[in-house]
Design brief:
This protein is mainly α and 414 residues long. It contains 16 helices and no strands. The longest helix is centred in the middle third of the chain and has 36 residues.
């Protein structure tokens, strides 16, 4: 089957994923507009929080490893089987967690139904990786567009008719499962065998291979989580809520950056596998330029337009803090660069460097929290995130350079 060009893959992936994420964001607006109280909104927010935990566990940060497995050390059958096992294990963990933490039975039902939605989404992710590995990210883009539009339509219609969050989530889940069965499975199956199949030995090999990526992702996630949670404990939920209101839209920069660099993973992996280091460097240069331009335009727009646009969206009460949208965008950009650095190290199988980037960033975040918050108060969160990831990225690159010099001095070769 004919592969698409890097440009085609980039466009399809970015457009499709942005539409899907935009429609998912719209569900948080629709649930407020179409509900008679804020109960549905609160239950959905709780379900989404549990869903984020589930996704982190179930994906096992495997996508970059799978795409960059150019020599097919593990088959697509292995990856699909491994994902089925992690889905089952993560579901059990999150349901037990929900039983302990969920405040009401109404919310618990919403959580369980939303987990079904996330199970479908996370299973589809492993099929998307097969599409990407065969350079057919148009399948991903079309699937994401279909899912985004169908899910928001089903969610809105069900909520409007039944005024029940459970029914709305169930409707959204059902229609997305239909898309998985009717579109995603046949298209991924036309590219490779996707029948789940894995031995115990293969499972543990894949588990060990992906564990450094999971540790790196965990440290990465804890940097911003630690900064925000400690600030909330110290200054209260209202102060944290003001920061979150300003910073949340800036996450779009981080998400957009990941969609932009993801299509580059395959060509870079192929060139590194064939020892075409100049070709890999050329792809990295193109990616670097794309990231720099995207981040620069986003940051510039945030500083110029953000302080005026945010009060229009959120109300005049946010006006005194709207100036922080620029620094918050810089913080989101730092997280995007750290994420790219981590994934590139995974592609190169430099696992120690991948873990070091974010582990050092986390340690720096803990160490610098009090000075940053004392000096800059709420904006100290942004400065803390930027500084922590800068230290982490520098440390990871330094470790990478030292490892290359060591291999050169000892005569070791990949």
């Amino acid at each position: 089957m004919k592969e698409l060009s890097l440009k085609q893959n980039l466009i399809w992936n970015t457009v499709g994923c942005l539409i899907y994420q935009g429609c998912q964001w719209l569900t948080t607006i629709v649930v407020v507009v179409l509900s008679v109280s804020y109960e549905n909104s609160g239950a959905l927010a709780f379900a989404m929080a549990v869903g984020n935990i589930f996704v982190s566990l179930a994906t096992y940060n495997m996508r970059t490893f799978q795409v960059s497995d150019i020599n097919n050390v593990f088959s697509s059958n292995n990856y699909v089987a491994f994902r089925c096992i992690t889905l089952l294990a993560s579901s059990v963990i999150c349901i037990v967690y929900s039983v302990i933490t969920t405040p009401t039975q109404y919310t618990f039902i919403a959580v369980v139904l939303f987990l079904l939605f996330k199970i479908d989404e996370t299973f589809t992710n492993v099929l998307y990786t097969i599409d990407q590995k065969h350079s057919r990210m148009d399948y991903i883009g079309i699937s994401q567009i279909l899912r985004g539009m169908a899910s928001i339509a089903a969610f809105s219609a069900a909520l409007f008719v039944f005024d029940s969050l459970a029914v709305a989530i169930a409707a959204m889940t059902l229609i997305c499962m239909c898309i998985t069965v009717l579109y995603d499975i046949p298209h991924a199956g036309s590219l490779d065998s996707i029948t789940p199949r894995i031995t115990v030995t293969e499972f543990w090999m894949l588990f060990r291979a992906c564990t450094p990526a999971v540790l790196s992702l965990l440290c990465y996630s804890l940097v911003s989580a630690f900064a925000r949670q400690r600030f909330g404990i110290q200054y209260g939920e209202e102060a944290l809520g003001v920061y979150a209101a300003v910073a949340t839209p800036c996450v779009l920069v981080q998400v957009l950056a990941s969609y932009l660099y993801n299509p580059f993973i395959l060509p870079i992996s192929r060139k590194l596998n064939h020892k075409d280091y100049s070709g890999a460097a050329h792809e990295l240069a193109k990616l670097g330029i794309l990231m720099i331009v995207t981040i620069a335009v986003s940051v510039l727009g945030a500083f110029i337009v953000g302080p005026h646009l945010l009060p229009i969206i959120l109300g005049d009460s946010i006006s005194s803090s709207a100036w922080m949208v620029g620094p918050a965008t810089l913080a989101a950009s730092a997280m995007a660069i750290a994420s790219l650095t981590m994934d590139l190290f995974i592609v190169m199988r430099k696992y120690v460097c991948a873990v070091a980037v974010n582990m050092v960033a986390l340690l720096a975040c803990v160490a610098l929290y009090h000075p940053c918050i004392s000096l800059w108060y709420m904006n100290g969160i942004n400065i803390l995130i930027i500084t922590s990831f800068a230290v982490g990225i520098f440390s990871g690159l330094l470790l990478f350079i030292l490892s290359l010099r060591f291999r050169k001095s000892t005569g070791l070769r990949d």
